[in-house]
Amino acid sequence: MIYRESGQFASSYAKDMRMFPLLQDRWAFGALLVFAFVVIPLIANDYWLSSILTLFLIYSLSAIGLNILTGFCGQLSLGHAAFMAVGAYASYNFAVRLHTPVLVNFLLAGFVAAAVGLLFGLPSLRIKGFYLAVATLAAQFTIEWVLVSFNWFAGGSMLGAIDTPPMNIMGWDVSSNLDKYLLTLSVVVVLAIVAKNLGRSEVGRSWRAIRDLDVAAEIMGIRLFPYKLLAFMVSSFYAGVAGALYAFCYLGSLEVTAFELAVSFRLLGMIIIGGLGTILGSFLGAGFIVLLPILISQAIVFLHISGASDFLANAELMIFGGLIILFLIVEPYGLARLWQTIKEKLRLWPFPY
Amino acid sequence: MEEFLFFMEVLVSGLLQGFMYSVVALGFVLIIKSSGVFNFAQGSMCLFAALGMVSFWEAGIPFWLAVLLALLMMVVLAVAIERVVLRPLVARPPLILFMATIGLSFFLEGLAQGIWGTQPHGLDIGIPDRPFKGFPIDVSQFELFAAGVAILLVVGLVIFFHRTRIGRALRAVSDDHTAALSVGISLRMIWGVTWALAGMVALVAGILWGTRLGVQYSLTLIVLKALAVLILGGFNSITGAVVGGLIIGGSEKVAEVYLSLYFGLGGIESFFGYLLAMLVLFVRPYGLFGDEIIERV
Amino acid sequence: MSGPVTPEPLPGPAGEPPRIALKAGGRPILQVEDISLSFGGLKALDRVNLEIREGEILAIIGPNGAGKTSLLNVISGVYHPQQGRILFEGQDRTRFRPHAVANQGVARTFQNLGLFRAMTVLENLMTGRKKFIRTNFFLQAMFWGPAQKAEIEQRERVEQIIDFLGIEHIRKVPVGTLPYGMQKRVELGRALAAEPKLLLLDEPMAGMNLEEKEDISRFILDANEELGITIALIEHDMGVVMDICDRIVVLDYGSKIADGPPAEIRNHPDVIRAYLGTTDDQPPPASATGDITDRAGRAGGGPIEET
Fold first, then answer.
1. Which parts of chain C are beta strand (E)?
2. What's the whole-model pTM score?
3. Domains, chain A, with CATH or none
4. Interface touch B297/C69, C-beta < 8 Å
5. Strand partners, C258
6. Any domain includes C261
7. Domain range B2-123+141-283, CATH architecture
8. 3-state secondary structure at position C286
9. Count of domains observed in chain C
10. CB distance B106–A318 less than 8 Å?
11. pLDDT at position C22, please?
């Protein structure tokens, strides 16, 4: 009875096309922002801020990027983590060599990643489907190798180990875990809204048209190659910014292995479980994957299972893999669609139909 | 002369390694040919098979019996995969099925290690990884043996596809699903059979690679090598799997050795195959031997 | 071409003659000259000549496997012919890619539906308006100013088409969940949304019941008369074809065997022979190759089956 649209009439197309057409959704979104910016800083401890929430936000951002390429445009990528690496190392180099301001730095990291994404998107001119997916693996391995082999990228240290310099944004010393959380949150909120906007305008529609049926998309006047390239670039931009945040706000010091193939697969798992082609799904999937090991270790403590560390790792693999399969079979649009279904039910509640 | 011999040695060793890539790639080709599924879990199946086999053997079961048991296990696994994963996803887009096999890959890896543990197992099948004596160049006995196994496997598969009833049914299905169904071929049975076959190939690949690397988690990574081989050779061609394996095996070894010799750049094996494959794709978008897919409107 | 269009009842056969008379002199909007297309050894089109005249409704008919869909594919740029050329409004565009053809003002529907299944009806129709949206990427990212204005303008136009087709109630439903007949209607709407000069319809009424066929016929006639769109359609229902079309082209084994007004085609000896399938007891025409053995089982042209 509380969640329903009755009495709310869209009196103009502008109103009908709002990001959240329903009053209740707008309230919920506002409340969520207040919660994230005000309540969490008051109640969360350092462990939650540094190890869970910041990581969750960064993964969400990267997952949005992957979702733009895979969920929106239908081009499967298995090398998304490599573009995070590009962003991380680009931002590091801008910071230590050119001393650019932090936010400019992040933006540049995104652009560098986008440029590299453009390069690895070029094969989409000729190949598609599995062939293209496997080609994205080339991006993963080549980028990893370049960053490890040429230690210029890491300022001369071995294996690409870097230490990020301290951040200062117009007098705001971003040093505590809370500061880093708030910085990450701000960046993620802005870029998530941008992604949402792209999704509902002409670019997003063209991407989804290509995903659903590329032949028909072309016949509707959509040029496939530029749009695919654009998807590669935007996707990599998001990954790049996420990588920069990962280096500066989450880890502080890292090596190239932080962006190995397994991370690419984890990101893919997030968007499958969270929901392909939705921004909300990127957040839900990221949250789920970040919380999964914690849930399992809690379960182990609760059930008094011995041999915990091995079991934990294997159980995590099995649950992760199993859930990917399960969601693909039962709910291809992931947790985000489940959420839709719940809202649908809520709209009718307390009546069954 | 000295330099030429060295080059030959590198090349031959690379080519023989290429045969081992081909064995892994063959498992993929089998499944793609019959069901159009790109099975990313092939590497995990290798780990699963090899880990099972080694564990049976270490438990005191004779070698051949352990192999047989592992074979049986792979058949059971194949049937289970068909029922639980593939059947509900029938008629879904190929990319969705591909992603499902990525999930399957993680699941099998966790399952195998959950059952048999995460410690690496040594595997010694009695053929030393040492060069023959008396040759002008060094050729590992084990690599020769592995190449022999790969060739036998290919011959066996070709005979199976062309000379047996079930093999012909498989070819019919890969040519045209609907037409095959209409003449009474059961798709479920076919899928079960191919996955079982792919499981057996995975066992062979797992034993070969397990002997070289030890039976452990990293076996799942050989899938990544096989993928490059596949896109180079063409996804649905047995010939492509073999030729692709040889090309990548040979060229990446030569490139690795000479690049690190003259430029000090090591570790290119991780991506060299992919770059090569991508170059080929620009010229032939469906690989060297893959069937071109005509866009249907 | 502005303002909502109110559907009218289907004009009876009595209303036809003056329309034909009016259109007979229309100048050609599209000329297909001496087109041949083959897949491997299979010849789908064999030196086909065809002219579509401005303002007419042209039907392309022929037995299964005659090359009708191949012809549409060549016209819309999906395939490029090995021989011959295509002129649109007098300009050679034989080698154009499909998107370029679309931007010239050609829209089409598919035999087996070419909708974007996971997108809503509204979004599907909005893809038809793509060429009218000329805002840049960064404005769209902000969804602000000109970008929002363009969206609203195009939305208004799309709403008129939704109104025209009577699909208001399903505008926010993903098309994949709609019944088949409704999807066909949405696909027609998407093509209309592009405001084409030439509309190609590949079996717009396949698998429909009588009532649905009448609806679609009415939409086609209205689109032609009120929006001034030239239409070429492939259809198997001869009743419909004879009723709504100004001119009929008949294909068989990839060749054109007849071209003329419905009354003439109805009694054309070659057409009757092609349809009654006399090929069973006498050799097929010279143009046919031995490869086409299963033509009865095929709809459309050659190896191109459903997607």
1. 28-39, 42-53, 57-61, 83-88, 91-92, 106-108, 198-202, 230-234, 247-252, 255-260
2. 0.88
3. 45-348 (1.10.3470)
4. yes
5. C250
6. yes
7. Orthogonal Bundle (1.10)
8. coil
9. 1
10. yes
11. 47
